[in-house]
Amino acid sequence: MNKTSDYQFTIIVPFYNEEDNAQTLEKHLSAYLPKCDKSPACVLFINDGSTDASEEIIKEICSRHKDFFYIGFEKNAGLSAALKAGFDYCQSPYLGYIDADLQTDVDDFNLLLHDIEQYDMVIGIRAKRQDSFVKKASSRFANSFRRAFTHDGVSDTGCPLKVMHSSLAKKFPMFTGLHRFLPAMAQMVGGTVKQIEVRHYPRTAGSSKYHLFNRLIGPLGDCFGYRWMAKRYIDYTIKDTTLNG
Q1: Exposure b/e, 66-101, CB count within 10 A at least 16 = b
Q2: Residue 14: burial class (beta carbons within 10 Å; 0-12, 13-18, 19+)
């Protein structure tokens, strides 16, 4: 049996070459679990083919905590793939997503969980974003372009702090780049989304995996891919059936 079925809330943490942040991440997550508003809660690390010592460190961390679990990819597959694995293997009623870079605060999950009964997805907005001018400007442009394509009304889809019903996440037709469109996909499958301001911090260890191309040019191309998929998305409601006797 999948061990996450024993919990109410699973925190999915994708990581790729984040050895410098692993120990601090362990400290923050282990301190948060006892005070999570959807207890019991657990952590599910997704190692996206790290080439540094991240995998060994995360396995050691999981051995120290009964509520920490781990999935490892054979090779790097990207953030969308890591999230899909988390969505596929999570069996708790609710799940959350946070990056391993420590730029968002795990305690802010409770701000989002406060409204998860009324909404299908609640996402963070980095109100006082602590990033470089170039990073903030490129993100702002990409967000405005994405909103024009999706009409999702979301101001900061790139904020790596989100909670949702697991049943909703399992409906998402994920492929490369679609991690940028989680709120739009939630709306596409009939879900409701709320935005809440959360804290944001500068990166203090490790290095960003994003550069101008995958922060700006890549997302623009993904918008066309999303538009193509959204127009062809299959949805249906069963009126009746004889399968159940």
Answers
A1: ebbbbbebeeebbbbbbbbbbbebbebebbbbbbbb
A2: buried
Q: What is the pLDDT of residues 162-193, one digit of tens each?
A: 999 999 999 988 777 777 888 888 988 889 99
**Four-point Cα dihedral 91, 92, 93, 95, nearest 10:** -100
Biggest alpha carbon–alpha carbon distance for the chain: 62
Alpha carbon distances (Å) from 19 to 57, 80, 101 = 7, 21, 10
In the chain, the amino acid numbered 73 is F
Q: Return the structure tokens found at 185.
A: 């996909």
* 3-59 pLDDT, tens digit each: 999 999 999 999 999 999 999 999 999 999 999 999 999 999 999 999 999 999 999
C-alpha 166/C-alpha 170 separation (Å) is 6
Provide the sign of the torsion angle of the four alpha carbons 208, 155, 38, 86, taken in this order.
negative
Is CATH 2.170.16.10 the classification given to domain 3-232?
Answer: no
**CB atoms < 10 A from the CB of 157, how many?**
24
φ, ψ for residue 95, nearest 5 deg? -140, 155
Residue 126: what are its φ and ψ, rounded to 5°? -75, 90
Partners of 10 in the β-ladder: 42, 95
Length, in residues, of the chain: 245
- Whole-structure pTM value: 0.81
Q: Where are the chain's structural domains?
A: 3-232
